[in-house]
What we know:
Elements: E1 5-10, H1 14-26, E2 30-36, H2 40-50, E3 54-56, H3 59-64, E4 70-73, H4 80-89, E5 93-97, H5 104-116, E6 121-124, H6 131-142, E7 148-158, H7 176-192, E8 198-206, E9 212-222, E10 226-233, E11 235-246, E12 249-253, E13 268-272, E14 276-279, H8 286-300, H9 308-327, E15 331-332
Helix pairs in contact: 1-8, 4-5, 5-9, 7-9
Amino acid sequence: MNRPLQWGVLGTSTIAKKAIIPAIQQSERGEVLAIASRSKEKAEAIAEEMDIVRAYGSYEELLDDPDIQAVYIPLPNHLHREWTIKAAEAGKHVLCEKPAALNAQQSAEMIEACERHGVLFAEAIMYRYHPKHRRVQEIIESGEIGTVRAIHGNFTCNTADDKENVRFKREMGGGSIFDLGVYPISAARMYLGDEPEAVTVHALFSEEHDGVDMMASGLIEFPNSVALTFDCGMWASGRAEMEILGTEGRIELPKVFGWENSDIPPQIIIHTDSVSREERVSVSNSYVLQVEIFAEAALEGKPLPFSPSNTILNMRVIDACLESARTRQRVLVDQSPVE
């Protein structure tokens, strides 16, 4: 087999340690060669714990390593733009944790830098790589549930007591829409194959949490009079579900965004007037699928299933949601062409 893609990880966040680093190590096409932290001691400790060969005491040192081909960026949201551009300038492919940036303009600048330097850019919205979502699209396209009339989605958890969490820092890009709302919004866009026209969002901005949105509920208007209603929150009982409602039936998706094991409930439940049935496509780790597909694109030139322009379009919806929540107004989504 050809040499695997050599990864460097910029930061020692929980998502890196618990999900992405293990996923790369479990993959067939990737190897974690190095990890960097602002603390050399912290980087060395994680490297020893996770069997990573190289540890650096700065992000710049990792980007200077000529053996690193791709970087994963799990840094706080406000640092995504800076370090994506620096990685691109260093000739490294970039897998950047969601949300890609603090707004659509920043994400466009990041993507332009990657294109200019001839490297890949992908936003790490891992759930999309699981084959169950392709199956959902097939069911919709088959007409089994009729014409889609509405989509409902939610993603909530309760981490409100962790007051020092970066997700609760306004200047660092905190808040539930950035952290969790991106999931049902991106899923509705994926299932419908269309872009929203307008949004209306109401949010709980908590002064206990630096004024970030700790809970948000919204209406996302799509063409053909279809809408997504969603809620997301970091100060509510945990759940992650979606339902796609059609004229002849509905698709229910319990535990829709997580990675999976054999103990989970059915992935897809289809209800029609005549029958209900359950489907399980595969038991797969979405993080592993994500890094495998990224490696194929980097090493073999295969196209990524979710283009960089998809990131910009999703960020435009997030921008509109945040504006609507702050102004208590219905906000039109930017429809200008993505260059």
